[in-house]
User: Fold this.
Amino acid sequence: MCPRKTYYGRGPIQLTGNINYGKAGDTLKLNLLNNPEMVATDPVVSFKTALWYWMNAVGLVVGQGFGATIKAINGRRECGGEEPQKVQRRIGFYTDYCKQFDVDPEPISLVRVH
Assistant:
């Protein structure tokens, strides 16, 4: 970890935290701990880190339903009961997009995130 750098959400999946920046950087052979801004300024790095995160954190739970993917991406922030309005808003977007693409959303029991 570089003391003068910040590891806030960057990229399509909002890579966050020095641990994720370090692990993604190691896998991609990039020094993201010293250059976290690469995730925001280099579109190729941005999508590579998003794909890395998806394959290592989100992809493992996709079969468990939409709620599990929210938890894998946002953790306690949305799934710990602290911000129920955000959860409901995200579920609303999800069901809205499903309707727009004429896709049947998962049964509501799989959409729950608590």
Q: What stands out?
A: The chain is about 55% helix and 0% strand. The longest helix spans residues 84-100. The radius of gyration is 16 Å. The CA atoms of residues 1 and 33 lie 6 Å apart.
